[in-house]
Amino acid sequence: MRSLEDTLGQVRQRILRARSRRPVNEQNTKAALVEPILRALGWNPEDLEEVEREFKVKRRDKPVDYALLVLRTPRLFIEAKALGQNLDDRRWANQIMGYAAVAGVQWVVLTDGNEYRIFNSHATVAIDKKLFRTIRIVDEGSFVVETLSLLSKQQLTENRIDVLWKAYFVDRQVGSAVEELFAEPGSSLVRLVRKQTGDLSPKEIRASLGRAELHLDFPVKTMAGPTSRQRRSGKKPDIARRRPMSEYRSSS
To answer: Using an 8 Å Cβ cutoff, are 63 and 102 in contact?
Structure first.
């Protein structure tokens, strides 16, 4: 079995070649781009106890393209569209969320073979905030490998993605709250800053906070991409870190 890195390189070349040729339809996207990734992640698309195509909970239900099964139980749904399809069309996310709700499946992936969007369908928030991570195969780097690895048979069995989601969900809320504090500083924040600075007036402090551009990074010993500071400096992280909150919001 090819390693994930080798498979990504092969699929990346297929995507780049396809961009200069005629459009790739959905069936070819699945066969040439999606299924090689599944195999590299430890899934066997020919084993019906691991991967079920056109999965339905009930006969009358609409099918989802792939159901990845752990102990014969659906653990993750994948809905694949043709390469280059606009994944921003809310119909696709609504569609797969509906499939997951019927089946009680928490994790869903929407992909066009290049871009992968991972959602937590059980999160009690709006659909755009259910988005956990977005990667593109053509973007080389450790974040692509590490994110796709969360969908591997081993890591889904170990519930690795659930652990990272819980931390991410808390960090996102804390980050948003802190950024809002600086965007519209209240009297308590001004008093706190004035206590540390001494000579500055509340008016000066409010004006300064209004000029601040805040980007929060959450260093953790888990898999994630480089911080915004590391990207600007070109330095590689010495420990894995989550991406800044602003980047997660822009990717959705």
So the answer is: no
CATH value of 4-158 in 3.40.50.2300, 1.10.486.10, 3.40.50.150, 3.90.1570.30: 3.90.1570.30
Q: Which amino acid is at 81?
A: K
Q: Where do the CATH 3.90.1570.30 domains begin and end in the chain?
A: 4-158
Distance CA 248, CA 175 (A): 11
- Full pLDDT tens readout for the chain, 252 residues: 579 999 999 999 999 999 888 889 999 999 999 999 999 999 999 999 999 999 998 888 889 999 999 999 999 999 999 999 999 988 889 888 988 988 999 999 999 999 999 999 999 888 888 999 999 999 988 999 999 999 999 999 999 999 999 888 887 777 777 777 776 677 888 888 888 888 888 888 888 887 777 666 665 444 334 444 444 445 444 333 444 434 434 333
